[in-house]
From TrEMBL:
Pfam families: HLH. This is DNA-binding protein inhibitor ID-4. GO terms for cellular component: cytoplasm; nucleus. PROSITE patterns: BHLH. Heterodimer with other HLH proteins. Gene3D superfamilies: Helix-loop-helix DNA-binding domain. GO terms for molecular function: DNA binding; protein dimerization activity. Residues 1-41 form the BHLH domain. It comes from Dryobates pubescens (Downy woodpecker). One of its GO terms (biological process) is negative regulation of transcription by RNA polymerase II. Keywords: DNA-binding, Nucleus, Repressor, Transcription, Transcription regulation. The keyword ATP-binding does not apply. It is found in: Nucleus. SUPFAM superfamilies: HLH, helix-loop-helix DNA-binding domain.
Amino acid sequence: LLYDRKGCYSRLRALVPTLPRHGRVSKVELLQHVIDYIWDLQLALQRGPPRPVATGDTPEAPCIPAADRILCR
């Protein structure tokens, strides 16, 4: 069981692009990066494909403020 869990954590490290590639990261930090990455993906799906930005347009504000997305920190 422990071997499988270590393999899952290794897989998560490889899949999450926001994870720092240098140094070690605790399991809690790894899981927080996974949660943040899932939130980012969800927001990207809700927004749909990017639209061209016309001159003078302001960028669209995210639905959920970044401070509210961080659940465990």
